[in-house]
Specification:
Strand content: 15-25%
Helix content: 25-40%
Low-confidence stretches: none
Strand order of the largest sheet: 1-2-4-3
Structural class: alpha+beta
CATH superfamily: NADH Oxidase
Number of domains: 1
CATH topology: NADH Oxidase
CATH class: Alpha Beta
Oligomer: single chain
Shape: globular
Number of helices: 8
């Protein structure tokens, strides 16, 4: 699959089959993150792979009350990856420059994981709703790491079609002219 096909085929999958993701495929997905570009090639990321059922089932309980229903689907996923960054150097640089490149770096790596998973027929859903302190305790995450986002992965419960993974309908997207300016703000491309 070429990258443009993967981008078009990708959907936020929230219903997963019980099929576990093969270790070889998990390693391919993680390798795509390892190869991602990062600011000054610092690679200040760390990925916590969670495949233990008892831990996955607890993840939605780490979310603040009132938002839990948004993430209950996580408990049925076979795999969750927490994208983290190391605090020490990245925080100092961010404070000095005002650029939080470490957040961008982890996001790029996780996006590459999404595309790699899509190519392998594995559905993903990027999750930003989590209670960091509770999730840190659940994952036994050392203090030097901060969580950027969760990536929930699994084979879609619904059969995929030529149009999309998990046969999930396309969601509306803005037109290109609504989101792009050329040279100066407001000039059409």
């Amino acid at each position: 699959m070429d990258v443009f096909k993967a981008i078009q085929w990708r959907r936020s999958v929230r219903r997963f089959s019980k099929q576990k993701i093969e270790r070889k495929k998990v390693l391919q997905i993680l390798e795509s993150a390892r190869l991602a570009p990062s600011s000054s090639n610092r690679q200040a990321w760390h990925f916590v792979v969670v495949d233990e059922r008892s831990i996955i089932e607890q993840i939605p309980r780490t979310v603040p009350v009132g938002t839990r229903r948004i993430v209950t689907f996580i408990q049925n996923a076979p795999l969750v990856i927490a994208g983290c960054y190391t605090k020490a150097l990245t925080h100092v640089i961010a404070q000095l420059t005002g650029h939080e490149n470490h957040l961008i770096d982890v996001s790029i790596a996780m996006t590459q994981m999404v595309l790699a998973a899509t190519e392998l027929g594995i559905g993903t859903c990027w999750v930003g709703w989590y209670g960091e302190s509770r999730l840190r305790r659940l994952l036994d995450l050392p203090r030097k790491y901060r969580i950027v986002a969760l990536l929930v992965l699994g084979y879609p419960a619904d059969k995929s079609s030529a149009e999309s993974i998990g046969d999930i309908p396309v969601r509306p997207r803005k037109q290109l002219h609504e989101i792009v300016s050329y040279n100066k703000f407001g000039q059409r491309f």
